[in-house]
Amino acid sequence: MELKKNPKADLTRNSGLYFVIGLVAVLALTWVAFEWKTYDDDNNFDYTMNVEDTLDEEVPMTEQIKTPPPPPPPAAPEIIEIVEDEEEVEETVIESTETSQEEEVIEVADVEVEEVEEDLDIPFAVIEDVPIFPGCENEKDKRACFNEMMQKHISKNFRYPEIAQEMGVQGRVNIMFVIQKDGSIGNVRMRGPDKNLEAEAARIIEKLPKMTPGKQRGRAVRVPFSIPITFKLQ
């Protein structure tokens, strides 16, 4: 015999309804909790605004501008009195400086003015009368003869320094000197790549003979002259 269950005794029959009712109740409690407001009983709130009193600030005092005093009035013009010229003025008599025929004229002797000779340096290229190298006295072109004799003198007395040869030193030495007013050689200066070459060039120039000095307007003057000496290893 099959057993049958009483529908009234089934507890799960209305479970869906109970779930909905419980869910609504929970939502209602949650809404009430969020909307619930409370107020303090202290009603002694001070509604006055905290405004600072700006009248206590220091107001800067305006500086008093002193105006300069007015300029003094212009002085009154002096009153010029016109006085009649009654006083007598003595006239100054200027005597003539011209001599009369009766006075004797003293003759003054001629004053000799000594000419001061100035030491002038006239370059060899522009001097009127070039210095005369010994042996060029009878040549017409003494300037060309001077240059030719200078080259011969250098070739004759040329000697390559041994120490410069060992070191392999070579180059050009520019040498300058002055032919003095007495024909001697002075003020020798040189510039080259090595001291040994410079010393040899100076030795050659110091062996130059005494010359006839150069002249400008008939007066003996100093004549600067420069010439290069080339030292070249073969």
Automatic annotation (TrEMBL):
Signal peptide: none annotated. Its main location: membrane. It comes from Arenibacter certesii. Residues 145-234 form the TonB C-terminal domain. It is a single-pass membrane protein. GO terms for cellular component: outer membrane-bounded periplasmic space; plasma membrane protein complex. Pfam families: TonB_C. It comes from the Bacteria. Belongs to the TonB family. GO terms for molecular function: energy transducer activity. It is found in: Cell inner membrane. InterPro entries: TonB, TonB-dependent_transducer, TonB/TolA_C, TonB_C. NCBIfam families: tonB_Cterm (TIGR01352). Keywords: Cell inner membrane, Cell membrane, Membrane, Protein transport, Transmembrane, Transmembrane helix, Transport. One of its GO terms (biological process) is siderophore transport. The lineage of its organism: Bacteria, Pseudomonadati, Bacteroidota, Flavobacteriia, Flavobacteriales. This is TonB C-terminal domain-containing protein. The chain crosses the membrane at residues 16-34.
